[in-house]
């Protein structure tokens, strides 16, 4: 696919500074770009590459002032990073438009309802009474169990397993080998020391514009639903336990685990390797830094939490300083004790 710089500028509501007629057909990092590529500059650390890149065009902020001569054509936009993200999204849509039809061999139940312009890859399975919305793409080796509902314009990548009665909204993306709707971890201890399995009779609901990373698991509820609200973005290798609720536009980084029945608010940012205890509530706009352990309810919205157990990040930094100085403090105590003994 080939576009002129002018066409791309129009798509991004940008202004061209240079040759509008240049043609680009590839996306590239600014330090790796060659003729025919388009790149972007958002981080000042990479400004040096603007003066050496051979990319045909570079997207920059409209406030950017170059310090040296350059040979590339610039596309001036309000926010270079956001504009390049838009460009990537449009490029992905164009690629996806080529995927339509049902490949064989695949299995689609006679009771399933399939929308228009749908792609279903080879070896995919769509069970009884499932519904798949218009323009949704289901890649090879996906399994969708009975009575599940997939909305419109979704993308489900290879190896994903969706258990029965799962409900997925519009414009959702589920990456390879994610598991949606597996049993929650529910076992009841018995008098003889064994554990009886508690049936997990609920389901999982993903609302609209949800993204699930590769190898992430979202467990079905014991009763009711495990719910990820509109706009939630989940990274790879995340565990969401039974009956958890994640609020709108919350983002969760890799290797995080959220225990059962915990409720996370809207617009939260959860760092990598965070652990959350069960049956707690985390307020809206909470930020939890990487490797923190949240063991208690966070009531005040907008707090930054850090450490394990997690506390206010400012207090956590103070604690780290004290911890670092413990050997010195211990030595001073020993010296004071020795002085007291000598008196």
Automatic annotation (TrEMBL):
GO biological process: lipid A biosynthetic process
Pathways involved: Bacterial outer membrane biogenesis; LPS lipid A biosynthesis
Endpoints of the signal sequence: none
EC annotation from Swiss-Prot or TrEMBL: 2.3.1.191
Keyword field contains Repeat: yes
Active site, renumbered: 242
One GO CC term on file: membrane
Keywords for this protein: Acyltransferase, Lipid A biosynthesis, Lipid biosynthesis, Lipid metabolism, Repeat, Transferase
Catalytic activity from the UniProt record: a UDP-3-O-[(3R)-3-hydroxyacyl]-alpha-D-glucosamine + a (3R)-hydroxyacyl-[ACP] = a UDP-2-N,3-O-bis[(3R)-3-hydroxyacyl]-alpha-D-glucosamine + holo-[ACP] + H(+)
GO molecular function: N-acyltransferase activity; UDP-3-O-[(3R)-3-hydroxyacyl]-glucosamine N-acyltransferase activity
Pfam families on file: Hexapep, LpxD
Location of the UDP-3-O-[3-hydroxymyristoyl] glucosamine N-acyltransferase non-repeat region domain: 22-89
InterPro entries per the UniProt record, alphabetical: Hexapep (IPR001451), LpxD (IPR007691), Trimer_LpxA-like_sf (IPR011004), UDP_GlcNAc_AcTrfase_non-rep (IPR020573)
Subunit field text: Homotrimer.
Purpose of the protein: Catalyzes the N-acylation of UDP-3-O-acylglucosamine using 3-hydroxyacyl-ACP as the acyl donor. Is involved in the biosynthesis of lipid A, a phosphorylated glycolipid that anchors the lipopolysaccharide to the outer membrane of the cell.
Similarity section: Belongs to the transferase hexapeptide repeat family. LpxD subfamily.
Name of the protein described by the UniProt record: UDP-3-O-acylglucosamine N-acyltransferase
Species whose genome carries this gene: Arcicella aurantiaca
Lineage summary: Bacteria, Pseudomonadati, Bacteroidota, Cytophagia, Cytophagales
